[in-house]
């Protein structure tokens, strides 16, 4: 081994004097690289490995000098001060460093040769316009308030909601992780082209388009890219683990060689030889410019060399995918928002300045590259920028390597922090292992990022990785544009960005350009990336936790609801557009277990009233007390949270309402009058039948029950009373038998509609519907049956029609011939009513006043009371005779008779529901809910 080389490397590795060593390092690297370009001694095959080892050591030496300087500063100061950065160092330099990368150095001249000057100008303008519009949207969102960690994820998530934010954020994380592999492969490819002797598996191309070349064209082997790429990735990961704070301070130093190499490239362009056509370098020549103006799309091999038998065909769309990563990096400034002095000024100015600067540089480079070399030279020399650089190519090699490795370090430090920010928001439990405390390093996320990066490096083909990176970045950019579009279009009061040069149409155009570019590159990659984002969105919506960030979708829902409400108006809803909006009365008429705000089966029944779960329910609970009492107000807030949690647990589309009132009757009267807006007011009151009123001796229930029903009738609300709620099936308990309807009075078709809605549920889908029509004995039963069948056929409802003849009231018909279990209940009801009536009369005589019940005077017609009892007896007897084995029975609700005590009405109802296990008592309202018309 040469002794001088060992001494130089030792001096570099032990340097601690500061950045003055960097200048010495740059001057020494050239003399170290020169011996490697000499012919190899055939007697020493291991010279390949020696050169590779010491080239790697030289690179490590450079990093050692940089990090040694920072380590010395950190040791001297004791800690890294949190210095706030301005526009230049905080936004412009990071964006410029991320945008000016590997694509410009090793692919841009090849792109100009393949697409020609004309198409290359269009390509740069097209991609630059996309990022420029995205920068405008980013500037508007970033200046609308303070930003936390997470960069674009934070912006998109707070604008479009946690589901969209997490899905696009994870895709952007994958894009950054894959971009790290892109930069590593670019650095390795440049190194292998600069030092061909370092290649283990070298390849040479001797033919271009089937014709032999004067000299073999050295091409790095994919195996070399894989081996060196894995080694470099692991080294970078160790650096990230060992000194992330140092990386943030050293990062600007990586830009110095890049800018210096750019100056050398342009000096080389102007000083290129003009009379040496054998090398393909013509200097700035109008003839070359004209020859290279048009495109020359063709097949190439894996190394990018033109080959008619190659497997890759390049066109404008494919070049968009290859070039677009060269204009990404506009998010670098927003990612550092926490360290900026003035976020709302620095991000717009710095990002837009970097975008415009690099776009202009690309456009000028297209013109110069197209005029200074032949097309064959552009297509065969991937490192043409180094070939033309003045005074020697090594400067460009160093610039490429440092630029790409610096960008790779940024990816390996930024991507884990993005993943940690997503995990810290606690939306997805599966990401909990990536959480980090504030101020700590995301080591687990860094390992995961390194694993993805190594997996992409193993692919070993730069041209296959760039479209993947492009898709993820475009998906993120479209999310930023859509976020600004939504916020700008809704124009909520909180939308007050300091950056005024924006409009929703500009953001929409930017989002459209992103989608168009995605499909131009590859429709298959686009479908895969959108499918991946959709799967993540679906997974987050199912497994994720709710995050109320005040996103734009909430504002959109609000405005959409207002417009829909205004469009509905106050006119009566047409039967075709009628939806049940049940008001679920949570008062259970009894005690429930602690922390159970509503009967568990009420939500199951509410879902049965909706077709495929569509529709809204309102769960209402009334707390007895004075609303002006602070204690009751706090109880109401706690009850609201408890009821809302119960609704979410039951997976019911509903809202919760808590009302504080002196008693249940007054509370319900206020609810039934004021609940809802316009045609979105509840139209059906659902409650449990108070079966416990006699068993628990709750004497206040009859009056309250009658008052609620009368209030519903006055307010024109339909009523559904569920008897046997404890036995109501849930979604997993399948029922068999029939759904029997006792259609006594015209109810607008509500009972028929409810039976169809029940039939649409899984628990009742095996049942059949039977409609029992109650007719007088002297009516034509067959004609009635035919009319009902025709009516049901026009309604598209399948049901069996049964006509039953029954007199409304006939004492002799019931007297001794009716022998069933209903008679016992009938006799008991008669006895209780007589006893209650006697007590009322004695009380009235003692006070010398008229009969009083429920606090108001009543007039009792004993014959009418007996008539009600006998009619109810006949109906109950008929239900037991025909529907004892039915899955559920629906019967019309009789209105409370005028001037009858509430106690009497409860006796009528008890007799009606006696021995019927599961019964729905239904009362429609003064409008049709079904129609025979299309």
What do you see in this structure?
It is built from 32 helices and 16 strands. With 934 residues, the chain is α/β, with parallel strands linked by helices. Strand 6 (617-624), helix 24 (630-649) and strand 7 form a beta-alpha-beta unit. 44% of the residues are buried. Mean pLDDT is 78; it is low at 1-60, 62-82 and 808-819.
Give a quick precis of the structure:
With 934 residues, the chain is α/β, with parallel strands linked by helices. It contains 32 helices and 16 strands.
In total, how many beta strands?
16
Strand content: 5-15%
- Residue ranges: pLDDT <50 for 5 or more in a row? 1-60, 62-82, 808-819
Q: Determine the structural class based on helices, strands and strand pairing.
A: alpha/beta
- Largest sheet, strands/sense/barrel: 10 strands, mixed
Average per-residue pLDDT, rounded, comes to 78
Terminal-residue CA separation: 94 Å
Strand order of the largest sheet: 7-6-5-8-9-16-15-10-11-12
The portion of residues assigned to helices is: 55-70%
Q: How many DSSP H or I helices? A: 32
Q: For the CA atoms, what is the radius of gyration? A: 41 Å
Global outline = elongated
Fold blueprint:
Layout: H1 3-13, H2 20-33, H3 47-77, H4 87-99, H5 102-106, H6 108-142, H7 152-160, H8 162-194, E1 203-208, E2 211-219, H9 222-242, H10 244-250, H11 255-270, H12 286-291, E3 299-300, E4 312-313, H13 316-323, H14 343-372, H15 375-380, H16 384-387, H17 394-424, H18 443-459, H19 462-490, H20 504-521, H21 523-543, H22 552-568, E5 582-585, H23 600-608, E6 617-624, H24 630-649, E7 654-661, H25 664-674, E8 684-688, H26 701-714, E9 718-723, E10 738-743, H27 750-759, E11 768-775, H28 781-794, E12 800-805, H29 811-814, H30 822-847, E13 852-853, E14 856-857, H31 862-883, E15 888-892, H32 902-913, E16 919-923
Parallel strand pairs: 5-6, 5-8, 6-7, 8-9, 10-11, 10-15, 11-12, 15-16
Antiparallel strand pairs: 1-2, 3-4, 9-16, 13-14
């Amino acid at each position: 081994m040469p002794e001088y080389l060992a001494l130089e490397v030792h001096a570099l590795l032990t340097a601690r004097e500061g950045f003055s060593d960097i200048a010495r390092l740059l001057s020494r690297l050239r003399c170290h690289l020169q011996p490697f370009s000499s012919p190899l001694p055939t007697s020493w095959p291991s010279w390949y490995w020696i050169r590779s080892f010491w080239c790697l050591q030289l690179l490590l030496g450079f990093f050692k000098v940089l990090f040694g300087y920072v380590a010395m500063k950190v040791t001297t100061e004791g800690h890294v001060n949190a210095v706030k950065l301005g526009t230049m160092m905080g936004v412009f330099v990071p964006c410029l460093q991320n945008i000016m990368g590997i694509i410009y150095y090793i692919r841009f001249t090849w792109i100009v040769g393949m697409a020609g000057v004309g198409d290359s100008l269009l390509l740069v303008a097209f991609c630059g316009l996309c990022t420029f519009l995205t920068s405008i949207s980013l500037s508007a969102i970033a200046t609308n308030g303070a930003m936390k960690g997470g960069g674009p994820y934070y912006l998109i998530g707070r604008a479009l909601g946690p589901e969209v934010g997490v899905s696009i954020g994870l895709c952007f994380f994958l894009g950054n992780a894959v971009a790290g592999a892109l930069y590593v492969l670019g650095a390795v490819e440049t190194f292998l082209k600069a030092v061909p002797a370092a290649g283990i598996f070298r390849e040479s191309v001797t033919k271009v388009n089937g014709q032999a070349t004067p000299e073999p064209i050295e091409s790095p082997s994919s195996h070399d890219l894989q081996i060196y790429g894995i080694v470099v990735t692991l080294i970078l990961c160790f650096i990230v683990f060992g000194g992330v704070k140092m990386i943030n301070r050293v990062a600007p130093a990586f830009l110095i060689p890049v800018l210096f190499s750019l100056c050398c490239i342009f000096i080389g362009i102007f000083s290129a030889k003009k009379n040496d056509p054998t090398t393909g370098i013509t200097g700035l020549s109008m003839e070359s410019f004209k020859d290279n103006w048009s495109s020359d799309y063709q097949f190439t091999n894996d190394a990018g060399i033109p080959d008619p038998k190659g497997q890759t065909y390049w066109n404008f769309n494919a070049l968009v995918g290859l070039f677009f990563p060269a204009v990404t990096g506009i998010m670098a400034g927003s990612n550092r928002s926490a360290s900026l002095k003035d976020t709302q000024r620095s991000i717009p100015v710095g990002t837009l300045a970097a975008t415009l600067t690099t776009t202009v540089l690309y456009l000028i480079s297209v013109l110069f590259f197209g005029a200074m070399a032949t097309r064959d030279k552009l297509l065969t020399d991937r490192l043409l920028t180094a070939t033309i650089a003045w005074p020697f190519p090594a400067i460009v090699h160093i610039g490429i390597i440092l630029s790409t490795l610096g960008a790779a370090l940024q990816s390996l430090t930024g991507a884990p922090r993005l993943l940690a920010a997503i995990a810290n928001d606690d939306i997805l439990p599966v990401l909990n292992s990536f959480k980090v405390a504030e101020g700590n390093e995301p080591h687990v996320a860094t390992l995961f990022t390194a694993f993805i990066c190594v997996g992409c490096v193993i692919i070993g083909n730069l041209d296959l990785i760039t479209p993947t990176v492009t898709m993820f970045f475009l998906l993120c950019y479209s999310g930023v544009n859509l976020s600004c579009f939504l916020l700008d279009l809704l124009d909520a009061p909180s939308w007050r960005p300091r950056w005024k040069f924006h409009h929703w149409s500009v953001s929409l155009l930017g989002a459209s350009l992103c989608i168009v570019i995605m499909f131009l590159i590859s429709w298959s990659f686009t479908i895969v990336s959108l499918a991946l984002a959709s799967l993540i969105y679906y997974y987050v919506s199912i497994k994720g936790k709710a995050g109320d960030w005040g996103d734009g979708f909430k504002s959109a829902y609000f405005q959409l609801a207002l417009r829909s409400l205004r469009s509905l108006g106050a006119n009566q809803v047409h039967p075709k557009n009628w939806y049940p909006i049940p008001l679920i009365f949570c008062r259970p008429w009894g005690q429930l277990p602690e922390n159970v705000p509503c009967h568990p089966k009420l939500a199951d029944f509410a879902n049965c009233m909706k077709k495929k779960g569509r529709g809204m329910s309102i769960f209402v609970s009334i707390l007895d007390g004075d609303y002006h009492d602070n204690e009751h107000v706090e109880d109401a807030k706690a009850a609201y949270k408890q009821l809302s949690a119960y609704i979410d647990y039951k997976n019911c589309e509903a809202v919760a309402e808590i009302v504080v009132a002196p008693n249940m009757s007054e509370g319900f009267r206020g609810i039934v009058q004021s609940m809802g807006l316009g045609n979105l007011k509840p139209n059906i009151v659902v409650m449990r039948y108070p079966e416990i009123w006699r068993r628990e001796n709750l004497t206040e229930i009859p009056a309250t029950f009658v008052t609620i029903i009368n209030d519903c009738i006055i307010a024109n609300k339909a009523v559904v009373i569920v008897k046997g709620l404890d036995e109501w099936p849930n979604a997993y308990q399948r029922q068999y038998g029939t759904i029997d309807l006792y259609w006594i009075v015209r109810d607008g078709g509500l009972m028929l509609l409810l039976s169809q809605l029940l039939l649409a549920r899984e628990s009742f889908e095996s049942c059949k519907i039977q409609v029992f029509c109650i007719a007088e004995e002297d009516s034509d039963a067959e004609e009635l049956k035919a009319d009902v069948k025709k009516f049901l056929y026009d309604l598209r409802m399948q049901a069996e029609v049964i006509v039953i003849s029954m007199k409304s009231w006939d004492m002799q018909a019931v007297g001794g011939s009716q022998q069933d279990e209903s008679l016992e209940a009938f006799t008991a009801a008669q006895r209780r009513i007589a006893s209650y009536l006697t007590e009322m009369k004695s009380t009235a005589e003692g006070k010398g006043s008229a009969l009083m019940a429920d606090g108001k005077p009543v007039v009792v017609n004993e014959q009418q009371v007996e008539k009600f009892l006998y009619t109810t007896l006949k109906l109950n007897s008929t239900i037991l005779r025909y529907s004892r084995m039915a899955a559920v029975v629906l019967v019309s609700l009789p209105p409370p008779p005028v001037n009858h005590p509430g106690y009497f009405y409860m006796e009528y109802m008890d007799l009606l529901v006696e021995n019927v296990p599961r019964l729905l008592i239904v009362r429609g309202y003064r409008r049709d809910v079904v129609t025979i018309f299309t």
